[in-house]
Design goal:
The structure holds 2 protein chains of 2 kinds. Helices cover 32% and strands 25% of the residues of chain A. By secondary structure, chain A is of the alpha+beta class. In chain B, helix 18 crosses helix 19 and helix 20 packs across helix 21. Classes of the chains: A alpha+beta, B alpha+beta. Chains A and B meet through helix 11 and helix 12 of A and helix 5, helix 10, helix 22 and helix 23 of B. The structure holds flavin-adenine dinucleotide. Chain B: Keywords: Molybdenum, Oxidoreductase.
Chain lengths: 297, 826
């Protein structure tokens, strides 16, 4: 578990970091940003990646922290999972982020791993990409050429492939506040406390007026059901107008269940030692139902 | 799944253990002492092998075969040699004349095939991970980098992955001599009579999946020489055995080879081995004249630490209608892997005498075939043979109960040896000296709330709850305290089973205990100090225990098989007794009394009925000064003892497990776990508690999480800890533990050993609970590990194949989606 040799650059500011990346880019070097190192270092040590240089932004003072900006919350890329999880702004205004972050790995990893790193890594098994997709987050990225924004629906291009151009750094994410009436849940299924999600479901549900009403709107995205996080559009559509009364209470078919049975539509689940595609499809349906019930309940 | 550490609970635990630690009387034995070695172990302020730095030290990295079976047609090391910092690069060819063959000390049959096992492959590789070349460099990073510059051409040969296929006609051969290593048979009583007209016969097949021992400290080796003598530091459980074996393998004379096991962070049997890396490190230091170090990475360890279990078991029970067992027949295939290592073929034999468990029966028949495959060799792993046996009999007895519609505890009651019947010679020919299965079981049932859980189970079944509850029972015993030397001899093992201790009285009255056991996490320094403190009447703090260095502790058989206390602890006690005898003689002389009139208590030798006496410390000083000794009395109180037990010891106990099975996801959650163990007399309850907890966790690991998985080409897929899952505290329930104490009658301490009990007991308890939960669905078995996907598939398959009406509780649509053949890797 010893990585191949690489050059190590530790810039003093974000600007310097952008410059270092830009220079490397021009020189044709294969350079990587290093943040918390919780995903990148294992890849290096297993010799699955051979970058020629690392630009370590892990100790930069910014972009770090969480800020309430009216209609959205801005989460700086370098904010650690632990900081995100403990932030009262996150917990009150964008609770789905807190719920999902609390399921990431263990305390040691959460103290080092960063919000931005989790998303920039674009691992579909990570818990935060599905959350970002469900909430329609906006990614703010910067390079020597300036800043641009990427909607979540375009950010996750392929397995471990974000829509970042070479030389670009993710500075933070705008997480829309969903206002009153919304309920949230992140349902993660994993084999041990420290292991990644076999399947996860991020759900936000808004019910109509009155207790036990009908679903007005739902946002559902799935973790580890394809090379990228998957938005469960079919479920969202089918849930609209569904009666939220507990199943079987009046003998009527459980429309929530029927809607959630479409959870795996459009997914391309992977195969690994923790589950084959068929099992994952099944789990997606079961877990989506549980997530929706919990979010709306 | 995140657990919050409850500070209140922690404080309570500490208070509890302090309470336990308070001496109820003057005795040290029985006291819940906190371990004296822990401060240095947990802070790391100690010598782990990888911490050792020697002047001029070089670092070794091994290039390992990426193929399970191949001929090596070319190795080019020239580019690697040219890399910066590289001192030497060698392939197996370079060692061919001097590397010898890694030893197998347990030729279980006359006609066993023991293939040559070169530490570094020369012409052919037989498992993925086998070393084919090595780099020696000035630091470990350069060594690792240079590995990538070695070119190896392989001509692939067919992998042999499956034991049944390996034995088929025309199967590709792992070794020229064939794939069947041996067949070993053992029979007692008339097995045909037992099965003839038997009213009930249960026949089952169980898979003991391959496990990877995962010690906290990876293996590490440091070898050095001054040209004359050789010193090998190794993270090993067996410095003494290793020294003999390495001397025989490398030709370094035994008296010029010193082996040191510094502090060692766990082994679980995996460091009961003579490894390729140990031999090669010695050869390299001999060649280069410089010290060399090798430390494995975790993924290297997953590949090349010897693996455990890996057996296919067929067990048949013949029984009466009332559940009484007539006889048991067992046929085993045991996967040896590619070679026979130190005790590889003996592992199934350690289980062979345990398939009758705690039960009485008239006949027993056992056959085991050892099979070669192109996988890492298997060998001892916590329990070694006995967990496999216990699993099979405890699972099958549950099946018998289900078949007869009896409660599984009741079936056990009808068969077990009752407490009045001890000593009892089992159908396997072992004499169980003592035990009380009734007491342990009754205590466990009460703690568990057995009846309430059964009531809840019935309720959940009735309301067709998607989360079903199962109750698992495991009443185990095991043979521990390895081992009476003559028994080992009769089983063709290459050595004895005695243990050695020396007790040295220092002039100031302090005591050094030298033990031949080799602790690697078991707390011998504490427990041996407690035994010594009581025996000699000295303060606990005045005892130091020395171990793990053949130059300090010259004789020993090391630590494995729950033997250290039962054999080594008894040796310490017996050496103390000899010291006392000498001290008594000296005291009599000094007090001008007859030795018969000298009484010993609280560390003082007194003339009976008087206050006149000498403390053991005074006597130690007097022996040191030697000014006034009895005629012919050597100026020393020191004594040594080598203890060879007459019999094994037989811990036993009852473990009960309640599991909630989510039938929609297949997930199993252990809700409660009760363990009542009888390990005989207890020297230190905290240490026993720790061993029980760790053991249960490891057994649960086999039941739910762990499996070494190979693809059809023989490549190991579980090389990292994200694929080979071991449970952490967050995945385990609170264990409720208790003990009954039925002292062993076979040794003066009354102890039985506790190192393996938890692992042996817990695996069947968990699987029995899962199967119990799913019986209404027509499920009779779930193969281990009971992963969620596997449980889900098993339910679905039972539903589709079971007779109509046995489909169990119907489920809502999502959960009802039945699997097709499109599957994962398993
Ligand atoms: C044992 C373990 C268990 C884990 N379990 C989980 C889990 O259950 N769920 C989960 O979601 N995650 C899990 N993780 C991953 C963890 O969440 C990581 O923190 C996260 O994936 C990466 O964040 P990081 O800051 O460590 O990024 P790094 O490892 O430093 O970088 C990851 C990738 O992102 C790039 N990158 C990082 N920051 C930026 C940036 N600001 N701009 C552009 N590119 C950037 C890097 O170049 C690299 O390619 C686990 C990790 C470990 C070690």
């Amino acid at each position: 578990m010893i990585s191949a040799p690489f050059d190590y650059i530790r810039p003093a500011s974000l600007e310097e970091a952008c410059r270092a990346l830009g220079d490397a880019e021009e020189a044709g070097d294969d350079v990587k940003v290093l943040a918390g190192g919780q995903s990148l270092l294992p890849l290096l040590r297993l010799r699955l990646a051979y970058p020629s240089a690392l630009v370590d932004i892990g100790r930069l003072p910014e972009p770090r922290g969480v800020e309430d900006r009216g209609d959205h919350v801005f989460v700086g890329a370098l904010t650690t999972h632990d900081e995100v999880m403990r932030s009262s702004v996150v917990r009150e205004l964008i609770p789905l982020v807190a719920l999902a972050t609390a399921t990431v790995a263990d305390p040691a990893v959460r103290h080092r791993g960063t919000f931005g790193g989790s998303l920039a890594h674009a691992d579909p098994a990570g818990d935060l990409p599905a959350v970002a997709l469900a909430l329609d987050c906006v990614f703010v990225v910067r390079s020597v050429d300036g800043e641009r924004e990427i909607p979540a629906s375009e950010f996750f291009v392929d397995y471990l492939e974000p829509a970042l151009e070479p030389g670009e750094i993710l500075v933070g994410v705008r997480v829309p506040k969903l206002g009153p009436g919304w309920g949230f849940h992140y349902e993660k299924f994993h084999r041990t406390a420290q292991s990644w999600a076999t399947v996860g479901v991020a759900a936000a549900v808004r019910l109509g007026e009155g207790g036990g009403g009908t679903v007005e709107e739902a946002r559902i995205a799935l973790t580890n059901m394809g090379p990228t996080p998957v938005r469960a559009h079919a479920v969202e559509a089918a849930l609209r107008g569904a009666d939220f009364a507990p199943s079987g209470s009046n003998g009527a078919p459980d429309r929530i269940r029927e809607a959630c049975d479409r959870a795996d539509e459009g997914s391309v689940p992977p195969t690994d030692l923790h589950g084959g595609p068929e099992y994952r499809r099944h789990l997606a349906r079961v877990l989506t139902y549980r997530a929706v019930r919990a979010a709306g309940g | 799944m995140t657990e919050q550490l409850d500070a209140g609970l922690v404080a309570e635990r500490i208070a509890e253990s302090d309470q336990l630690g308070r001496p109820s009387d003057a005795h040290e034995v029985g006291r819940a002492r906190r371990r004296k070695e822990d401060a240095r172990l947990v802070t790391g302020r100690t010598t782990w092998t990888d911490n050792i730095q020697l002047p001029g030290m070089l670092y070794v990295a091994f290039l390992r075969s990426p193929m399970a079976h191949a001929r090596i047609t070319r190795i080019d090391t020239s580019a690697a040699r040219a890399r910066p910092g590289v001192v030497a690069v060698h392939s197996g060819q370079d060692f061919a004349d001097e590397q010898g063959s890694l030893p197998c000390a347990w030729p279980v049959t006359e006609d066993i095939l023991i293939p040559d096992h070169p530490p570094m492959a020369v012409n052919e590789v037989r498992y993925a991970g086998e070393a084919v070349a090595c780099v020696v460099a000035t630091d470990r990073h350069r060594a690792a980098d240079a590995l990538e510059a070695i070119e190896v051409d392989y001509e692939p040969l067919e992998a042999v992955v499956d034991m049944t296929e390996a034995l088929a006609e025309g199967a590709p051969r792992v070794h020229e001599s064939g794939n069947r290593a041996f067949t070993w048979k053992f029979a007692q009583g008339d097995i045909d009579a037992a099965f003839r007209d038997a009213p009930v016969v249960i026949e089952r097949e169980y898979v003991q999946q391959r496990l990877i021992p995962t010690a906290m400290e990876p293996r590490a080796v440091v070898a050095a020489t001054d040209g004359e003598t050789f010193t090998l530091h190794s993270s090993t459980q067996i410095p003494h055995v290793l020294r003999v074996m390495l001397a025989m393998t490398t030709g370094i004379p035994e008296h010029r080879l010193r082996v040191i096991a510094p502090d060692v962070g766990g082994g679980f049997g995996s460091k009961l081995q003579v490894t390729a890396e140990e031999v090669l490190a010695l050869l390299l230091t001999r060649r280069l004249g410089k010290p060399v170090k090798w430390t494995e990475s975790r993924s290297e360890g997953n590949l090349t630490v010897h693996h455990g279990r890996d057996q296919l078991q067929r067990i048949r029970i013949a029984a009466e209608r009332d559940g009484r067992v007539r006889g048991v027949k067992v046929e085993l295939l045991a996967d040896m892997g590619a070679y026979l290592m130190l005790v590889t073929p003996g592992i199934p034999l350690l289980g062979a005498f345990m398939y009758s468990g705690i039960y009485k029966m008239d006949a027993y028949d056992f056959t085991c075939t050892g099979v070669f495959t192109t996988k890492m060799p298997t060998d001892a792993y916590r329990g070694a043979g006995r967990p496999e046996a216990t699993f099979a009999i405890e699972r099958a007895v549950d099946e018998l109960a289900a078949e007869l519609g009896l409660d599984p505890v009741e079936v056990r009651r009808r068969n077990w040896i009752t407490h009045e019947e001890f000593p009892y010679t089992t159908v396997c020919g072992l004499t169980y000296d003592s035990g009380n299965y009734e007491a342990a079981t009754d205590r466990a049932l009460a703690l568990f709330g057995y009846d309430a859980l059964r009531a809840e189970q019935a309720e959940r079944r009735a309301r067709r709850d998607p989360v079903q509850l199962g109750v698992g029972v495991s009443t185990y015993t095991e043979m521990c305290g390895l081992a009476p030397s003559r028994v080992l001899g009769s089983l063709s093992y290459g050595a004895g089973g005695w243990e050695h201790a020396t007790v040295r009285m220092l002039p100031t009255g302090k005591v050094e205990v030298v033990t031949g056991t080799s602790p690697h996490g078991q707390g011998h320094e504490t427990a041996w100090s407690q035994i010594t403190a009581d025996a000699l009447g000295v303060p606990f703090e005045d005892v130091t225990v020395l171990h793990g260095d053949t130059a300090i502790s010259h004789k020993g058989m090391d630590t494995y098989g729950s033997r250290s206390l039962v054999v080594g602890g008894v040796a310490v006690l017996s050496a103390c007794e000899k010291v006392k005898d000498r001290a008594r003689e000296l005291a009599a002389h000094m007090l001008e009394a007859s030795a018969d009139d000298i009484e010993f208590s609280d560390g003082s030798f007194k003339v009976r009925g008087t206050a006149q006496g000498r403390t053991i410390q005074e006597l130690a000083l007097a022996a040191f000064a030697a000014h006034d000794l009895p005629d012919g009395f050597e100026p020393s109180l020191d004594a040594e003892s080598t203890f060879d037990p007459d019999n094994f010891s037989f811990p036993h106990g009852t473990h009960l497990c309640a599991v909630e099975v989510d039938t929609e996801t297949g997930a199993s959650r252990i809700r409660s776990y009760v363990a009542v163990d009888d390990v005989g007399s207890v020297v230190n309850p905290l240490i026993v508690e720790g061993q029980v907890h760790g053991g249960i966790a490891q057994g649960i690991g086999q039941a739910l999480f762990e499996e070494a998985i190979h693809d059809s080409e023989g490549n190991l897929l579980t090389t990292t800890m994200s694929d080979y899952l071991i449970p952490s505290a967050a995945d385990l329930p609170e264990f409720t533990t208790d003990r009954t104490e039925t002292p062993a009658t076979s040794n003066p301490l009354g102890v039985k050993g506790v190192g393996e009990a938890g692992t042996i007991a817990s695996t069947p308890a968990v699987v029995n609970a899962i199967v119990d939960a799913l019986r209404p669905y027509g499920v009779h078995d779930v193969r281990m590990p009971c992963t969620p996907e596997r449980v889900w598939r098993t339910i679905a398959e039972a539903r589709s194949t079971g007779p109509a009406g046995t489909g169990g509780p119907p489920e809502a649509s999502a959960a009802g989606s039945a699997p097709t053949s499109e599957g994962g890797l398993r």
